[in-house]
Design brief:
The chain is an alpha+beta fold. It has three domains: 9-35 and 138-231, no CATH class; 41-132, no CATH class; 242-369, Nuclease A inhibitor-like (Nuia), CATH 3.40.1460. The chain has helices at residues 9-20, 186-196, 242-252, 280-286, 300-304, 315-334, and strands at residues 41-42, 46-52, 65-69, 74-76, 82-83, 86-88, 90-92, 107-114, 123-132, 142-147, 160-164, 172-174, 177-178, 202-212, 219-231, 257-259, 263-265, 267-269, 295-298, 336-343, 347-355, 361-369. A hairpin with a 5-residue loop joins strand 21 and strand 22 (361-369). 35% of the residues are buried.
Length: 371
């Protein structure tokens, strides 16, 4: 794993300056040769908004939906013509795994216009649904912001990509999503910031611009949001344990690193047959370590106190803090009797353990290096 390195401010400025060359900073999320009003026709799967057809006539001729492509001037309708919006008799949401009642507020759909059985008016088959954080439709060019999948080598890092939807334009790097122009609850804000750092990403309507970096003498590319849309998924199961809980923890810790003198991922830890939170000596036996190995118990709050706050004041740190706040909520929701162990010295194995809803002791393991 690549370790985040701190380098002198002058060198950082030179690195960031070189990264910004050719990035079209200070423009829309579209590239210089592609404005938000470019003549694009969506001919297959793409991103759309949908509005109820309020005309009064016999269904399916009326009463369905008008679907409009995002960031595009037109779409190919079911009859083969192109138009700024296309009429469909129905929305097919069966592939989403959620009910229509879950899609309250403003929604951006990913999907395609397809033929329907029994009539010529077509249907829209949705493969993804994205709900607005503020119940408002897109008001600017929309990009899907997600992690680049690369580790941070120099600070600040352009570890996110803004890929304009319904476009073949190349993705543009950003260090984060600026939500200062939106009024959001703390949970909604963390939801947007956290989603942006995952592979799944978040949809952001806004403008790519620059903001002060860290140190503040630097300027770094950011996406300033006018709207944000988080993907809507099936409701999570309650009372998770076993493989379902492991998958939930994997999602909560996806690409999340615990920082000390190194950066370490979180991994699933489930000692077989353990039904009570172990004593220090029991944990050492489970780990096949000498009984003389130091074990320290700390609270989760103490372990993550530097991770759940944005001490540096920059956007990458705010994204990271949001992810850790979400992790704390997941741990507290799924486990009881949470106990944190620090085992060893220098290369310290860290365990966050508790009892799941089935009574087994499970949790997460990571590493802290302290020389």
């Amino acid at each position: 794993m690549v370790r985040a390195m701190k380098i002198p401010a002058l060198v950082r400025s030179m690195v960031v300056g070189s990264l910004l060359v050719g990035c079209q900073v200070g423009a829309d999320v579209a590239s210089d040769d592609e404005s938000s009003s470019e003549e694009i026709t969506v001919r297959a799967e793409g991103y759309f908004t949908a509005a109820h057809d309020t005309r009064r006539c016999v269904s399916p001729i009326c009463g369905g939906y008008w679907v409009s492509p995002v960031n595009a001037s037109s779409a190919r309708c079911v009859d083969g013509t192109t138009a700024a919006r296309c009429y469909v008799a129905s929305l097919d949401l069966s592939g989403l795994g959620i009910g229509a009642a879950s899609l309250d507020g403003a929604i951006v759909y990913r999907g395609r216009i397809a033929p329907a059985v029994g009539h010529a008016y077509g249907r829209f088959v949705a493969t993804e649904a994205w709900r607005s954080a503020t119940d408002a439709a897109p008001s600017a060019s929309v990009a899907r912001v997600s992690t680049t999948g690369t580790a941070c080598t120099f600070l600040p890092c352009e570890t996110l990509n803004a890929q304009r939807v319904n476009s073949a334009a190349r993705p543009l790097p950003v260090v984060g999503v600026d939500l200062s122009g939106l009024t959001l609850s703390d949970a909604a804000r963390d939801g947007v910031l956290g989603a942006a750092t995952r592979d799944e990403g978040v949809l952001v309507a806004g403008v790519r611009t620059t903001a002060p970096g860290n140190p503040s003498t630097e300027r770094v590319p950011v996406l300033r949001a006018a709207q944000a849309f988080v993907r809507v998924g099936p409701p999570g199961p309650t009372g998770q344990c076993g493989a379902a809980l492991q998958a939930s923890f994997a999602h909560a810790t996806e690409r999340l690193l615990f920082t000390s003198e190194t950066d370490a991922p979180f991994t699933w830890f489930a000692p077989a047959g353990v039904r009570t939170v172990p004593a220090n000596s029991t944990l050492l036996r489970l780990l096949s370590l000498p009984s003389s190995t130091p074990v320290e118990r700390v609270t989760l709050e103490r372990l993550l106190r530097g991770s759940v706050v944005n001490a540096d004041g920059d956007l990458p740190s705010e994204h990271r803090a949001a992810r850790f706040r979400q992790l704390v909520q997941t741990l507290g929701r799924e486990l009881t009797g949470l106990t944190v162990y620090r085992v060893g010295t220098v290369q310290i194995r860290v365990f966050i353990l508790g009892r799941d809803r089935c009574g087994a002791v499970v949790g997460l393991e990571t590493l802290a290096v302290e020389t």
